[in-house]
Structure formats: structure tokens, C-alpha cells
Amino acid sequence: MTKKVYLAGAGPGDIELMTLKSARVVKEADVIIYDKLVNPEILKMAKEGCEFIFVGKEYAKHLMPQEEINEIIYQAALKYEVIVRLKGGDPFVFGRGGEEALYLKEKGIKFEIIPGITSSISVPAYAGIPVTNRGYTTSFRVVTGHEDPNKKDSQINWQSFVTDETIVFLMSIHNIKLITDKLIEVGKLSTTPCAIISRGTTKEQKVVVGTLENITEKSNGIPTPAMIVVGEVVKLREDLKWFEEV
Ligand code: SAH
């Protein structure tokens, strides 16, 4: 087998939402470099003797700078044949997989991308919220909520959020008040439906529903990882809620 780094998605939490391809490379791996968002159950699939390197990245607990992670992957690639860089959800959706792949390319290391089921659509689905739905909205967007919306040179065009699009904010809970205030400030209705989904697709899934105006107070103490979904489609949860009832 040729030496290769697999930048693989682990899915959003529920182990069965991992792709067959990711599962195959996990089984073949000599080393697995993984994030905090990866369900640890997945690691049990690895072969005996596989090395595990935890590079636990989760916002607000930045354990390790990206440069260091890039270097760890590279060093693992020098040592092993089958290197799996396993990331929560999809490696290219706010996963910094692109940066890691670029680093490997610079170093002349072969890599392969294995997309994963991103939390941005699957977690709403487990909460009974379709990100698009006829008669509600024809599009959705996924945004990082990491940035302070009042930052002067913000790269986010907040004005553009005044649409009927569904907006999924990842990495957003710590900024929830700033984000919801900003959306109201730029002209979204304060009654726009919102949901917070915590630990989606897992046994600990929690969903809180409200409006732009009151979701912040309702979010108090909700565990991470969590996301905010904004838009009329949130109303569909009332009828489409299913996971909590399984
Ligand atoms: N690459 C990942 C996203 C990484 S950003 C993907 O495609 O899913 C990390 C953010 O994803 C978290 O801050 C949170 O907003 C969201 N997230 C990931 N898994 C989640 C889960 N199971 N439940 C709720 N939010 C989740």
C-alpha cells in the first residue's frame, strides 16, 4: 500500500453516520490523529497496535495551534504508511482540512479526502429541521459564529442575512447574544424562529426552540458542541421531531 494521509470525516456523532470509506481507512490505519468532535467509539474499530494522537481542537479550548497539528500529521506521515486524520463532520466544512492538505502537498506527501456527513445538515435533521423545505426557503447557508459580529473588519456581510434563507451558525454558542442582536440590528424580525441543538445525533442531544429575541436566555447552560439554526424551517420541528421519540 502506498503511503498516504487520509483526511477523513467521522460524521456528526452517531457512529452509524460515518461513511463506509472512512470506516475502512480507520480499520487500516497505522496512526489516527483525531479531534475532540470525533466519537471515541470509532477508535475502537482500529487494528491492534494503531497509534492514536489526540489533537483536541474545539473552540475556546484551542489546545493546539493549527501549525502544530499540520506538523504532527506530517511527522506521522514520515513514520507510517496509512495515516488517518479524522475530523468531526466533514473535513472541509470548517474543519481546516484544506490547510492540512495544502501543508502535505507542500511537503510532497500524498493525501486523499474522504468527505463526511457534516453536522450542519445532519444535526438539524436529527432535530426534525430540514435545512430547506418547499414553501419555506430555497437555500441555506452555513456560517462560522466564531467571529465577534461587531468586529470592525468583519469578513461576514451581516446585511446579507436579511433573507428567508436558513442560517446555520457553527461555533456560535459563546457569541449567541452578539449574533442574535446583530441579526435584529440589520433588520431580521425578532420573531424569526431559532433552534439551538446541542450534542446532536447522540444520546445527549438537546434542542431548545425560540426566537431571535429569546433564544439567548433559553440557551443558558446548554452543553457544547452546539449550533444555532435560524429560519422559518425551525417551525417544522413541531411536526417532524423524531429522534427524541425513537
Ligand atoms: N467539520 C465539522 C464542523 C467543525 S466546526 C462538520 O462538518 O460538522 C465545529 C462546530 O460544529 C461546533 O462548534 C458546533 O457548532 C458544530 N457541531 C459539530 N458537531 C455537532 C453536534 N453533534 N451537535 C451540535 N453541533 C455540532
Automatic annotation (TrEMBL):
InterPro entries: 4pyrrol_Mease (IPR000878), 4pyrrol_Methylase_sf (IPR035996), 4pyrrole_Mease_sub1 (IPR014777), 4pyrrole_Mease_sub2 (IPR014776), CobA/CysG_C (IPR006366), Siro_Cobalamin_biosynth (IPR050161)
GO process annotations (BP): cobalamin biosynthetic process; methylation; siroheme biosynthetic process
An example molecular function term from Gene Ontology annotations: uroporphyrin-III C-methyltransferase activity
Pathway linked to the protein: Cofactor biosynthesis; adenosylcobalamin biosynthesis; precorrin-2 from uroporphyrinogen III: step 1/1; Porphyrin-containing compound metabolism; siroheme biosynthesis; precorrin-2 from uroporphyrinogen III: step 1/1
Alphabetized Pfam families for the sequence: TP_methylase
EC number: 2.1.1.107
Domain Tetrapyrrole methylase: 4-215
Name used for this protein in its record: uroporphyrinogen-III C-methyltransferase
